[in-house]
């Protein structure tokens, strides 16, 4: 097949992903711009126009790295629905990716951590419970609790886990990289979101039929619903949860307001709202 | 480009010739699918192993990747070298002398984006992410490499420690960032290939010498160091006569080898 060749712009972009592992939507756009500037690749000023060239750019890179079991993929945060792009390993030895940074004991610990997170109520566990995992490590060199604390800190720095308010959960990077692993190993203990069909660890569960939705998928689904109902055919019971109607910093609210304003105003006068709010908006 | 192998013993057929034909035979005996798979495994292997910052041994490549197709190594390495350069912007370097039979990966891409970040206040991301610790260690390394170069490309350990002490980096004191300074210099940097640490023969108590390691030679030029020191002392590089001479010689060699 004829593939667009890679240039230094693509290579720098790829190296950045190899270095950082995961970047959020804003960072990716910045990175693209920087790579274009440095290597004199034409880049549209308007952020929204940069969307298509960016996707094409990533596609080119993905074509070239696919034979090496690498892909740049989009992931969505289960906490706030924000997008990130991560460099993932697509072979089933996903753990080989981690293998160079972490010892076998540490990998074993991480696997046990995944186990208790999957078993927990809200896909989060406390630090005490986590540190106690050191006693459950088998067939590997022992870890002390201090070692485990150090490991957790590194896992957080490298964006595999999130630690907030004393609770530990899997970060977007882990979900992106390990969703297949988790779905396979824990098939009977985990659900997929009814809407996006992806692994759903954190979300809302229908108390009637057990259908699970991501917070952000539920927000989108029930956007205009006064009386949200379970989407499952054969259930359709009232959805008893509060719908997060403003997923991100009031952007969503502003969108509705703006749309209404546009409909009212016909003249092409300069808008008084700050247009840059929408540049970040979920086209990715 | 990787350096060509030095001429082996005169009473044997140059090994590079024999292995080339054998290697090509071994490679073409593999079917297309297998050739591709091995190549892709090899590239992945090299990328992962290089993360440890240790030279990658031919032995390990054969054992873990090529296996029954070990004879095809020279051909596969050439193909891998091309992939690494074209896709990742990384150079595969075959080492010489003490490290013969091993490889390291060196970045050919200039990842410096200061100019781009300065041009636009909205841009704040550095593509390659360095921890504070890494930055500090690189700073230390730069100082050490420059000192060694300025001193005539070799420096006795006591001299180096004396100099560092003046910069408040004391080998007898646990440093807030570097920790055990002596270990950082004599173990860490040596292991990574940035420094060479050898014992002077017939010295008691033992005296050691520091030189540039194979990785330093690949990642940084003597010109870089001379410029760095010149900036520090606010002098012109030419004022360091003998060091400048060395730099010019090195650059002359570079031109020769790229022209040939």
UniProtKB/TrEMBL annotation, chain A:
<keyword id="KW-0779">Telomere</keyword>
<dbReference type="Pfam" id="PF07574">
    <property type="entry name" value="SMC_Nse1"/>
</dbReference>
<dbReference type="GO" id="GO:0000724">
    <property type="term" value="P:double-strand break repair via homologous recombination"/>
</dbReference>
<dbReference type="GO" id="GO:0008270">
    <property type="term" value="F:zinc ion binding"/>
</dbReference>
<dbReference type="GO" id="GO:0005634">
    <property type="term" value="C:nucleus"/>
</dbReference>
<comment type="subunit">
    <text>Component of the Smc5-Smc6 complex.</text>
</comment>
<dbReference type="Pfam" id="PF08746">
    <property type="entry name" value="zf-RING-like"/>
</dbReference>
<keyword id="KW-0234">DNA repair</keyword>
<dbReference type="InterPro" id="IPR011513">
    <property type="entry name" value="Nse1"/>
</dbReference>
<keyword id="KW-0808">Transferase</keyword>
<dbReference type="InterPro" id="IPR046349">
    <property type="entry name" value="C1-like_sf"/>
</dbReference>
<dbReference type="GO" id="GO:0000781">
    <property type="term" value="C:chromosome, telomeric region"/>
</dbReference>
<dbReference type="GO" id="GO:0030915">
    <property type="term" value="C:Smc5-Smc6 complex"/>
</dbReference>
<dbReference type="GO" id="GO:0061630">
    <property type="term" value="F:ubiquitin protein ligase activity"/>
</dbReference>
<keyword id="KW-0862">Zinc</keyword>
<dbReference type="InterPro" id="IPR036388">
    <property type="entry name" value="WH-like_DNA-bd_sf"/>
</dbReference>
<keyword id="KW-0227">DNA damage</keyword>
<dbReference type="InterPro" id="IPR014857">
    <property type="entry name" value="Nse1_RING_C4HC3-type"/>
</dbReference>
<keyword id="KW-0233">DNA recombination</keyword>
<protein>
    <recommendedName>
        <fullName>Non-structural maintenance of chromosomes element 1 homolog</fullName>
        <ecNumber>2.3.2.27</ecNumber>
    </recommendedName>
</protein>
<comment type="similarity">
    <text>Belongs to the NSE1 family.</text>
</comment>
<keyword id="KW-0158">Chromosome</keyword>
TrEMBL record, chain B:
<feature type="compositionally biased region" description="Basic and acidic residues">
    <location>
        <begin position="24"/>
        <end position="35"/>
    </location>
</feature>
<dbReference type="Pfam" id="PF01454">
    <property type="entry name" value="MAGE"/>
</dbReference>
<feature type="region of interest" description="Disordered">
    <location>
        <begin position="1"/>
        <end position="35"/>
    </location>
</feature>
<dbReference type="InterPro" id="IPR041899">
    <property type="entry name" value="MAGE_WH2"/>
</dbReference>
<feature type="compositionally biased region" description="Polar residues">
    <location>
        <begin position="13"/>
        <end position="22"/>
    </location>
</feature>
<feature type="domain" description="MAGE">
    <location>
        <begin position="35"/>
        <end position="247"/>
    </location>
</feature>
<dbReference type="InterPro" id="IPR041898">
    <property type="entry name" value="MAGE_WH1"/>
</dbReference>
<dbReference type="GO" id="GO:0005634">
    <property type="term" value="C:nucleus"/>
</dbReference>
<feature type="compositionally biased region" description="Basic and acidic residues">
    <location>
        <begin position="1"/>
        <end position="12"/>
    </location>
</feature>
<dbReference type="InterPro" id="IPR037445">
    <property type="entry name" value="MAGE"/>
</dbReference>
<protein>
    <recommendedName>
        <fullName>MAGE domain-containing protein</fullName>
    </recommendedName>
</protein>
<dbReference type="InterPro" id="IPR002190">
    <property type="entry name" value="MHD_dom"/>
</dbReference>
């Amino acid at each position: 097949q004829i593939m667009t060749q890679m240039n230094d712009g693509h290579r720098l972009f790829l190296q950045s992903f190899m270095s950082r592992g995961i970047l959020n939507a804003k960072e990716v756009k910045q990175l693209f711009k920087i790579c274009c500037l440095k290597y004199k690749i034409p880049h549209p000023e308007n952020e929204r126009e940069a969307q298509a060239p960016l996707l094409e750019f990533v596609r080119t890179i993905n074509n070239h790295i696919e034979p090496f079991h690498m892909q740049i993929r989009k992931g969505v945060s289960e906490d706030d629905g924000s997008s990130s792009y991560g460099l993932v390993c697509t072979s089933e030895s996903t753990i080989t990716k981690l293998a160079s940074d972490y010892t076998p004991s540490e990998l074993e610990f991480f696997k046990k951590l995944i186990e208790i997170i999957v078993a927990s109520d809200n896909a989060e566990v406390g630090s005490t419970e986590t540190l106690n995992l050191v006693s459950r490590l088998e067939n590997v060199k022992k870890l002390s609790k201090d070692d485990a604390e150090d490991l957790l800190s590194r896992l957080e720095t490298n964006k595999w886990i999130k630690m907030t308010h004393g609770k530990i959960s899997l970060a977007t990077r882990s979900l992106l990289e390990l969703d297949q692993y988790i779905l396979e190993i824990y098939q009977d203990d985990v659900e997929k979101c009814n809407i996006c069909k992806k692994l759903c660890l954190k979300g809302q569960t229908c108390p009637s039929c057990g259908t699970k939705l991501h917070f952000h998928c539920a927000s989108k689904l029930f956007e205009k619903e006064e009386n949200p109902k379970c989407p499952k055919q054969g259930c359709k019971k009232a959805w008893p949860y509060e719908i997060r109607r403003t997923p991100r910093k009031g952007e969503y609210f502003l969108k509705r307001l703006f749309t209404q304003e546009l409909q009212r105003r016909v003249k092409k006068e300069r808008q008084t709202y700050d247009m840059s709010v929408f540049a970040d908006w979920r086209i990715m | 480009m990787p350096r060509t192998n030095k001429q082996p013993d005169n009473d044997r057929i140059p090994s590079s010739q024999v292995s080339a034909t054998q290697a090509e035979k071994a490679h073409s005996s593999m079917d297309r699918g297998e050739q591709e798979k091995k190549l892709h495994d090899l590239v992945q292997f090299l990328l992962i192993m290089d993360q440890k910052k240790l030279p990658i041994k031919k032995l390990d490549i054969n054992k873990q990747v090529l296996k029954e197709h070990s004879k095809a190594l020279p051909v596969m390495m050439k193909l891998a070298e091309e992939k690494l350069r074209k896709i990742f912007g990384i150079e595969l370097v075959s080492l010489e002398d003490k490290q013969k039979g091993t490889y390291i990966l060196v970045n050919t891409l200039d990842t410096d984006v200061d100019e781009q970040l300065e041009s636009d206040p909205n841009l704040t991301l550095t593509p390659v992410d360095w921890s504070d610790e890494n930055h500090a260690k690189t700073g230390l390394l730069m100082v050490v490499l420059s000192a060694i170069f300025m001193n005539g490309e070799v420096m006795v350990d006591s001299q180096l420690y004396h100099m560092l002490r003046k910069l408040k980096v004391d080998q007898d004191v646990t440093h807030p960032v570097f920790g055990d300074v002596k270990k950082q210099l004599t173990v860490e940097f040596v292991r990574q290939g940035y420094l060479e640490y050898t014992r002077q023969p017939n010295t008691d108590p033992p005296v050691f010498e520091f030189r540039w390691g194979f990785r330093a030679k690949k990642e940084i030029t003597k010109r870089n160091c001379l410029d760095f020191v010149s900036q520090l002392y606010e002098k012109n590089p030419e004022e360091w006569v003998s060091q400048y001479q060395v730099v010019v010689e090195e650059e002359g060699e570079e031109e020769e080898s790229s022209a040939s």
